[in-house]
Specification:
10 strands, 5-stranded mixed beta sheet, 5-stranded antiparallel beta sheet, mainly beta
Length: about 150
């Protein structure tokens, strides 16, 4: 697994190494996974680092109101007052997370829409504004495209 780049409105921008990430507290969540395409999986058990724990390592500045979660051009803005709903997962159903399912890190937002489950998270950026996230637009574009799907 690679490191996790955290920057933006933080006191200590850095790339957290795999070893540093391994020292952070962990959590587990079991819940249904429902996709806007109309399918659902009754129960998945996700395990990883609470998003707040990763952000705390870099000391967000007081003006930070959002965390932008990036996987290439796909990104989601999450209000900081909702980060307790989010895990950066590296395990699924008691197994290491596969590349297909989002390794090395997948954001899982409890109760969130399918597009908020960001696979292949590589960067977190603290910001004062949400900006114009691409996640929902890209995800809905995949649903609408003929023959699309992951």
């Amino acid at each position: 697994m690679g490191g996790l780049d955290i920057g933006g409105l933080v006191e200590r921008p850095r790339i957290l190494s795999t070893a540093e990430l391994a020292t952070l507290p962990r959590a587990r969540r079991s819940e249904p996974f429902v996709c806007e395409e109309g399918w659902a999986i009754e129960r998945l058990t996700w395990e990883g680092i609470p998003l707040r724990e990763a952000l705390t390592c870099c000391a967000p500045l007081p003006e930070a109101r959002f965390v932008r979660v990036y996987a290439g051009d796909y990104w989601l803005a999450l209000p900081l007052d909702e980060v307790d709903r989010a895990l950066l997962c590296d395990r699924l159903d008691d197994q290491p997370l596969s590349r297909e399912h989002g390794a090395p890190w997948r954001l899982v937002l409890s109760g969130g829409a399918c597009f908020t489950s960001v696979k292949w998270v590589s960067r977190l950026e603290l910001a004062a504004e949400a900006g114009t996230p691409t996640a929902e637009r890209i995800a809905r574009g995949r649903i609408a495209a003929p023959g699309a799907g992951d």
